[in-house]
Amino acid sequence: MTILRDLSVLWSLFHILVLFMLLYRSRYPKKRTIILTVVFMGSLALFNVAGLVRYGTELMGRVFLLTCTLPSLFFFWFMSQDKNGQFFFTFCLADTVSYWIIALTNILDFYFGGQRYILMFAGRLVLFPLVEWVAYRYLRKPYKELQESVAKGWGLFAGMTALYYLLLAVTANFPVVITKRPQELPAFLLIMALMPMTYATILAAMYRQLLLFRRQQSERMLREQKNILEMRLENQQCIRKMKHDMKSYTATLSGLLAAGETKKAKDYLQGIEQETDFGWGQFCLNPYINATVAYYDRKLEELHAKRRIDIRIGEEALPHMEICRILANGIENACDELGALAPEDRELSVQMQYNGEYLLIRIRNRCQEGRYVEQGKLPKTDKEGHGHGYGLRSTQEDVERLSGDMACYTKNGYFVLDVMIPCRCFMMS
Question: pTM of the full predicted structure?
Answer without folding.
Answer: 0.57
